[in-house]
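step: validate -> pass
step: tokenize input -> pass
step: predict -> running
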Amino acid sequence: MNDLATRTTNYARPRRAPILTLADLPAPGTTRWVVSRKAAVVAGVKAGLLSLDEALQRYGISLDEFMCWKRLIDDHGVKGLRVTRLKEYRAPTHADAEPQSPEDKGIGTPAAASYAT
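step: predict -> pass
step: emit ->
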């Protein structure tokens, strides 16, 4: 068998997903949430290592917080959990929206006129 045939057969092997265990999850009571820990908790719940209720109680997080992590992973992958890139991955809120009209900026309103004098 030639060298080329040997190399091409190595590529045909399927990759196996790593097996997740409870030891791979963050310690109970974790308070500093880095990307890898958030992702591990979401993966643990998805894999059935612990139920959603167990995860919420074990880590003291809210349902909204967990669902936000899950949505960000589903939409953007693990990179979506990075705090430094919130504006890239999260939908803008009303507070983040730019003012659309002069009235929204406070120009031409009675309150703005009282400050001008």
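step: describe -> The longest helix spans residues 63-76.
step: cleanup -> pass
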